[in-house]
Structures are given as C-alpha cells and as structure tokens.
Amino acid sequence: MSATALTAWPERLYDAYVFDMDGTIYLGDHLLPGAKRLIEELRRRGIPVRFLSNNPTKDPEQYVEKLERLGLPTPVEEIANTVVTTTRWLLENKPGAVVFPIAEEPLIRAFHEAGIEMSDDPEKIDVVVASYDRTFDYRKLQIAFDAIWFHKRATLIATNPDRFCPFPGGRGEPDCASIIAAIEACTNTTCEMVVGKPDPVMAEAALGNTDVDPTRCVMVGDRIMTDIKMAVNTGMFSAMPLTGESTLEEALALPEAERPTHVLDRVDRLIPKVLWDEIGWTEENDPIV
Ligand SMILES: [Mg+2]
C-alpha cells in the first residue's frame, strides 16, 4: 500500500465512531483542528459517537466537565475509560479480592463505590493495581514488593500500557508503563492483565450501549500500540490522526494487517471529501483554527 493510499480520506461514513481523547480530540486544554465540527456533524447525522481513554486519573464525570469546557457537551454514557473498565474487570475476575491501588483519587473512589476491599497491608493484598499515579513513591513500591515478592500472594494488574501522556509542545508525563516496569523489575513478576487499550475489553466498554457491530465501526486514535492495535484486535476499522504520538513513518513500517485504515493530517478528514464539499468545509473555515 502506498503512502498516498494509506492517507486517503475515507470514502464513506462508518456506523459508529470511537474517539480517543488526548492527542486525538484535544491536546492539553485545546481542541485540535476539526474536532468540534466533526463530532457535531456526526451527531447531526445521528451516528453514534463514543469517547474512550486509557487515562485513569479522571473519572467519566470529569471528562464530561472537560468536554463541556472545550465546547463539546457530552453525556456521561458516551464516555468510558480505565476507571470504569478496571473496576468492572476486578469485580468480574477477582471477586472478593483485597486490592492495593497505586492510583490517584478517581480510581480509588470508583473501587470504594464498587465495594472493592482495599488495603496497604502486604499480608492482606491479593491484587496490586498499577496505574498512572503522579503520587507514586518508594512506600507504594515497597508495599507492592512485599505483597508480591515477600509474601508471595499478590498478583499484579495495570490500568493501561502507555509509556507517557502527551502534553502540548511535545512534552509529556510518565504514565502507567513506568509504574509497571518498577514493580516488575524488583519482583521479577509479570503483569497479569493490562486493562486499557489495546485490550478488546475497552472496545466493549465503548460500544456496549450501542447496537452497532464493531466490524462496521471505526476507532480513531493517535497511538499505534493502543488505539490502532485495539482496532486490529477487535476487527474495527481504524483512523490515526497525526496530531499526537505516532507518525506516518511508524504506520508505514507496520505489517499491512496492523496498519491504520486511514492516516489523517486532521481528524475531520473522517468526513468524506464529497461531504466536505457539500457542507462547504475548507481547512480555512474551521471555526476553531
Ligand atoms: Mg491519545
């Protein structure tokens, strides 16, 4: 497949659109070019739109507030993230387990509300949950180490596999992969489950309250190893805007079956060219640019 074919605009609309947020819809506190009018146009046509994030430092209600602030009011039912999926995964797969969350408040609050028992006593911990935790410190690492290595009772799971969270200006913040690596390094254990994208559990969480077939939907996200891989893992089409982490060169270097269906310079190219002309869109008349 040539670079031209790979970057071609979709020629049709899909049955539903699942959007990653960081690096896809917005970067920091600013919507990316085309994001607002794209979402509004899909909604105007009655096409389901869902939002999906690997980030466990906010709960869906906080994403509602953020999207509203950015001018994209969205009902909470249309948003899923690893706070929701990790809680659900524990309830289904580790019922009754005592959990040590290496996590910020939203994930701990969700565990509490779900009735999941939590402890920082290594003798009682069944599952250590690693996450994107900006309060991570040596004490938490020692508790995980004691529960897993010394008492040989706890297993390790994690909310998401991301190495860093992208920030404006090419900056970023260390994400869950660094916490997983710290625990795996000292305990010589391997993380049993990483709940976030690319695991199909996330696609299910996003599309669970629609009646659309995932194979007729498109996953839109800026990261090959999470967003695009989840699409490949679940048989969804995929679109990768070049507004976040992954690059066109990285997409082209993938085996054909793992490449994004579409690589886009801006996210509103998800609307086919013929419809851009019909609606009267140009790159210049995007109201947020
Ligand atoms: Mg992203």
TrEMBL record:
GO terms for cellular component: cytoplasm. This is HAD hydrolase, family IIA. Keywords: Hydrolase. GO terms for molecular function: phosphatase activity. It comes from the Bacteria. InterPro entries: HAD-like_sf, HAD-SF_hydro_IIA, HAD_sf. The lineage of its organism: Bacteria, Bacillati, Actinomycetota, Actinomycetes, Actinomycetales.
